[in-house]
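Please check our next protein.
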Amino acid sequence: MVLRRRPELLKFVGEVWVVMLLVDISFSLFAPFLPIEMTKKGYNPKYMGPIMSAFSLGPLFSAPLLPRLVARFTRRTFLMLNIFGLGFTMMLFAFLMQMDLSENAFVSLAILLRFFQGFHSGFILAIQFSLISKVLSEEDKAMSGHSTRWLPDWV
């Protein structure tokens, strides 16, 4: 396997998996608890759909910005900034759940925060793929079953 022949990649692969786990957790962490909390506060749980789907709109808007921003920052710096941004928006969402707001204010802020969580996660995933494409050789990519030829050169 690729990692046995090149042990320096083992640490890199571990870092990639941790960051991908963070992004996946940020997508689904609130799903089981949000309807319960909303009904406890007297909010209508019908707003769960827009709140959860706002996460998926974030990468749609972050993708066009990526080429310009990557040119200004290094990939690792940009990755760390977006990991911090994702964690910060998750923390703000946790504080939002503790606040006593009207239903309209809560839903609006929840949709906004979920959008920014998706915005940051879109950057994180794109930068991870670009880092993988720069580290692995074409032979290693072929052996591991991962191809990054679809990535544009600016990534």
Q: What stands out?
A: The first helix runs from residue 2 to 5. The mean pLDDT is 78.
